[in-house]
Design goal:
Elements lengths: L1 H4 L8 E4 L2 E4 L6 H4 L2 E4 L2 H11 L11 E8 L5 E6 L6 H8 L24 H4 L18 H16 L26 E4 L3 E2 H11 L3 H19 L4 H4 L8 E7 L9 H4 L4 E7 L7 H11 L6 H17 L2 H13 L3 E7 L6 E2 L7 E2 L13 E7 L2 E8 L7 H15 L3
Parallel strand pairs: 3-4, 8-10, 10-13
Antiparallel strand pairs: 1-2, 4-5, 6-14, 7-14, 8-9, 11-12, 13-14
Helix pairs in contact: 6-12, 7-8, 8-11, 8-14
Amino acid sequence: AFEQHVWPAYKFHSCMADGYWKAKHPRMDIAYHFPEVAVADEAGIDAWVQIAMMEVLSKDYPPWRVTLLRPGHGRPALFFQMHHAIGDGLSLLYLFAPTLGCPGGDDAFSTIPLPTALLPPDRRRAQGESDGGARRECCCGPNASFLPFMRGLLMPALSKADDELRINAPLRDRTPYIKFNGNRVMTRFPLLPMELVKRIKNAHGCSVNDVLMAGLTGALRRYGAEVRGDQRLQQEGEKIEFKSMVMMALPRPMDSSDINSILSNSMLFVSCPLPIDEPTILGRLDRTIQAFGNLKSKPFVAGVACITNLVKGIAPTGVLRQVTSETFSKHTLLVTNVPCTTVPVTVPQGHEHAQVVREMYMVFPNVIPQVSIITYDGHVNVNIVADPALFPQPEALGTMFLEEFEAMVVA
């Protein structure tokens, strides 16, 4: 299934050289792209991933590998290592859908809860969109569009550096921009039942993303106060500048029958304040809903896209990297949230030895702590990749994350 549906995509059979994709391998090298590694147990899988996530892919092959990790006992795992230049999370969902099996032979893609605007054009009507069914914003007066647009346009320039806490680097290490020190540890959180998230969402009339970000913020506040002993997080009433970069997928023109039109990096990095200074659970949820309202505003997103495209279009590569580094350095963490199927999938589709995928995680070592979220098969799969100097005892953060939702549902 992989060789039939994925290898023909030019980014999967080409190498990057001098800024261009060049096809060098007419046939897929099975031994290189699909190695197998024996490990002792499931803990051995995590230990292997800690090392592999920091390794650089060979430039002599297309920049991806799928390693099968076989433990002596316990569940096996597939580790998909890929350069981000190939595509973003949404485009990979589109590409891999034909390789995923689904109960009853259904189309796995049809179970992914994506907004209509992010679906390929030829799939929108199939999922029930009518001419009048798309969400429209009511913009009453010129300021209703102009002011949000200007906020998005000026966001990078007006953004301040986050205040110093014990879960982010000192300001002196973030000025003019933070540097990658190479020390990163990946930690998986306990599985969070999606039913719990939906109960909170329905009770407060907000989005799944609002609930997840409010829960993450509460866990970070408690972790900083209890594990790191941060006095600023132990007291009430002090305003704290604390933000996350959030990756936001954008609609893209494509034909789902043309695999080369599917792969792209069509996304924005948007700055979102997180109310880590809010002591109450419902207060954090309310402020998170307000903060993430910008992501639901078309004029705001248009302003962010405008300045992003302008800088990318006119700035030399060195300046672009400096601007990106300085923007990231003003934030404490980066959060990626990708929806996947609501039912379990099998890999590869139709194969006699196909395996059911029980859990799914993204692992991304970044210059700032990265929290990656995948909603899959009725659960929220979360992990953090962070500097252990800032996040010692990261397992405690995972426990607090789950406990935050248990408290939120009865608040």
